[in-house]
Amino acid sequence: MIEVKKIHEACDKEEFWRAKQILQGRLVNSGYHEELFLLYGQVLLKMGDKVEAGKFLFLSGERINDYADSIALFISKYSKTNFSNFWSRMPVSARSVSRHSIPSVVMLELEEYFCDKEITSTFDKIEKQIEKKQNSDTYVSENIPLSIWFVLGLILFVFMAGIIQILQMLWTLWDLLFVWI
After folding, report:
1. CA–CA separation, 75 vs 78, rounded Å?
2. Which CA distances in Å does 83 have to 34, 57, 58?
3. Fewer Cβ in 10 A, N or C end of the chain?
4. In this structure, are residues 4 and 23 in contact, taking their beta carbons and an 8 Å threshold?
5. 121 Cβ partners below 8 Å, 6+ apart?
6. What is the pLDDT along the chain (181 residues), one digit of tens a residue?
7. DSSP label at residue 33
8. Which of 108, 86, 112 is nearest to 99 (CA)?
9. In angstroms, how far is CA 135 from the centroid of its own chain?
10. What is the pTM of this model?
11. Which residues lie below 8 Å from residue 133, measured CB to CB, with a gap of 6+?
């Protein structure tokens, strides 16, 4: 899934923009992927974007001294607001999962900075959206056979109407031929 080799090759050549590009493409549909967040944070750190790197290093759950400054910078800049606003700054792949998909290290730190009630409220909304999406996906997939039968029935009806029309024309031609004879 993640082209780690390509990312490391790009970083070795100091083509951080290329590594960033590869990772951005993977971030969109990855769900909560700790390794991907870590790699992206590392690339951003090498590019000098400490605040944005801090966001992804924070989400990765990886806590080593090399990342502490970036994570602290990100947290200090964005934790002054409520949790909902803070969480809205996260990538969609992180915002669209239930709280149980998030590493415990990250959840514990979130609980240090924000009120548990705010966190619970935000994740309750997210989980309702996830459930609603799953239910709508189920509804569509359960009703596909019905729609296929409807389309096939419609095609059969049009086909039969066409045959009836052709038979009527042939009958009219037959009558015309016998009138001339």
Report:
1. 5
2. 21, 18, 15
3. C
4. no
5. 84
6. 467 788 888 888 888 888 888 888 888 777 888 998 999 999 999 999 999 999 999 999 999 999 999 999 999 998 888 888 888 889 988 888 888 888 989 998 888 888 878 888 888 888 888 788 777 655 555 566 777 777 888 898 888 988 999 988 888 888 777 776 6
7. -
8. 108
9. 16
10. 0.68
11. none
Question: Could you tell me if 41 and 55 are in contact, meaning their C-beta atoms sit under 8 angstroms apart?
Answer: yes
H-type alpha helices, the chain: 4-12, 16-27, 34-47, 50-60, 65-78, 83-88, 92-95, 104-113, 116-180
Q: Within a 10 A sphere around the Cβ of 88, how many other Cβ atoms?
A: 12
* Token duo for residue 22: 């590869």
Q: Which residue is it, tokens 């409520």?
A: 82
